[in-house]
Amino acid sequence: MNTKSKEIIIVTIFLVIQTIIYIVSGVQKSYIHMDEAYSLGLASYDKVEIQDNQDFYNTWHTKDYYDDYLAVQEDEIGQYSQVYENQKNDVHPPLYYLILRFAMGFNVGHFSKWPGVIINIIIYIFITLTMYFILQKLLKDETRTKEKAIILSFIASITMASITNVLYIRMYALSTLNILIITLLHMKLLETKKTDVKLLVLIGIAVLAGVLTHYYYLFFLFMLYIIFAIKYIKQKDYKQFAFYTLTMIISGIVSLIIFPYSIKHMFFGYRGQGVIDNLTNVSQFLINILSYIQKIDHFGFNSLLFFIAIMFVGFTIYRLNLKKTNKNQENKFTKILLIPTCFYFLIVSIASPWIELRYVMPICGLIFVLTIYYLYRLLNSIYQEKTCNIIIGAVLIATIISPCIFKIEPESMYSDKKEIVTRMANDLNVPTVFFFDSENNRFLDDILLFATVDESYIAKDIEITEDNIQKILQDKNLSNGIIVFINEGQDNDYILEQVKESMNFESVEYLKRLNACDTYYLK
User: Fold this and answer.
1) Around Cβ 17, how many Cβ atoms within 10 Å?
2) Which of 103, 142, 247, 113 is nearest to 186 (CA)?
3) How high is the mean pLDDT in each 10-residue block of the chain (523 residues)?
4) Which of 45, 294, 28 is CA-nearest to residue 167?
């Protein structure tokens, strides 16, 4: 068996193991976030918000009513125009939603997490492969380059951040792939001595895909462009600079032809205005950075980042005491990875509307491999290669097992919601009333449960009186009790007492705090 065949077999084995891990994690995914519900609705429904339906509030609905928002129906197969229309009226470009819409067509009529999860599993096969190719270039001067590259790319793909990215039914896995592909292409561009039209075309296509997936991609792309613009200008290679810049301009024009609403989203929409406002809020900058470092530590390094930082400090001091210098030359590829990654992290730390892991998930893998790479370089300036490999191997093994030690799970798994979803689909499948304060509208955060129960009622901003409660529940079979949802901004105890007295219930059981409301069982 030749070397190439062995490489393919080893890489395939790692990808199979990775896929099994993702599938097992997918089986355990028990709930969805509001933005995941948006993904499904934007890809399948005829409008952005199900709450915009005139019959949404103050009417009894079956679970099919909510499934209609979360799934493609039989009469909608082959229809894609609403995806574009919804994205025009929302805040994101349409590429991911078109892919999701296609996948949802294989599971018609009812909600399923699997179309979105399977898309991300497939995307992550390409993410791991692209990271593998990136690491081969980054580690090209090391011994056993390919073995080190596949191991590190595999472990980067099974951190809690990566598994969260797989399970989270949003565009971030695709954005991760876009960032890695454009990085790899720029690494190839750095190696070219003359104009490579084929490579520039690939860069143009990659830029187009990235811009049509997520606008934050532009932060990463911008810094890559600056690096190469400076390079070409310094070298007085104005021909390459002109072709490179033209490639970017053409990609931008094509993206605007395909989706001209990007201008409105980025500069005039509420999300774009929020980004601009946040970028000028310097006082919040440091707090946001520290908060995101905590997120990356917990999920991107499985809570080992502080330990790794201590290793950096300790080995640096030890090297200074030995009066050793770094014997390794700076790799020419590191700045292509490091500078855009740091820039993306800093800008997103300021610009993102909330401190959420999802906004930095596209660069978590790069942060992980760069950290391990620089730790290896530091160790290599002190010890022989065998010792370096043993220490790095121990760190990587610790990364794999630490979720079991620290009881970390992917952020989007929601294993704590599994019991209530199961109960409401079975023994607690009773009339369900949501006393809804519209000032705190995050209904989609918990829409999944309404797609589970046979009948439910969203009571919007009603006065909590005996007459109103009895009117809502008249003619309903209450022999097995009811479920009550209450979101923020209300007096839960008062509402529960009124319902209990009005319908002569004897007990109130607190069930669960969900994403955006509290739930109770009254009987």
Assistant:
1) 12
2) 247
3) 89 98 98 97 95 96 97 92 94 96 95 98 98 97 94 98 98 98 98 94 98 97 98 96 98 98 83 60 82 97 97 95 73 95 94 92 98 96 94 98 96 96 95 96 96 97 96 95 96 97 96 96 97
4) 28
Identify the residue whose tokens are 């290793």: 311
Distance, in Å, from the CA atom of 333 to the CA atom of 190, rounded to the nearest integer, reads 8
C-alpha span between 480 and 487 (Å, rounded): 23
Tell me which residue has tokens 């096969």.
125
Start-end ranges of CATH 3.40.1010 in the chain?
415-522
CB 245 within 8 A of CB 199: no
> Could you tell me which residues come within 8 angstroms of residue 475 by beta carbon, excluding any fewer than 6 positions away?
none
Angle, in degrees to the nearest 10, between helices 466-473 and 492-503: 60
Strand segments, DSSP code E, in 58-176 are: 60-62
CATH of 415-522, one of 1.10.1200, 2.60.40, 1.10.287, 3.40.1010: 3.40.1010
Q: How far apart are CA 187 and CA 196, in angstroms?
A: 13
- Amino acid letter, 319: R
Q: Is 307 helix (H, G, I), strand (E, B) or coil?
A: helix
Contact 299, 161 (CB under 8 A): yes
Between CA 444 and CA 418 the distance in angstroms is 18
Q: Residues near 185 by Cβ (< 8 Å), separated by ≥ 6?
A: 199, 202, 203, 206
Residue 512, φ and ψ in degrees, nearest 5: -165, 145
Helix (H, G, I), strand (E, B) or coil at 1: coil
The three-state secondary structure class of 259 is coil
Residue linked to tokens 């760190």? 395
The DSSP-derived string for 341-399 is HHHHHHHHHHH-SS--GGGTHHHHHHHHHHHHHHHHHHHHTTS-HHHHHHHHHHHHHHH
Residue 280, helix vs strand vs coil: coil
What is the spatial distance between Cα 414 and Cα 279, in angstroms, rounded to a whole number?
32
Q: Which of 246, 245, 249, 170 is nearest to 213 (CA)?
A: 170
β-strand 432-436 against 455-460: which pairing, if any?
Answer: parallel
Contact 476, 505 (CB under 8 A): no
Phi, psi for residue 513 in degrees, rounded to 5: -85, 120
**In the structure encoding, which two tokens stand for residue 385, read together?**
């290669």
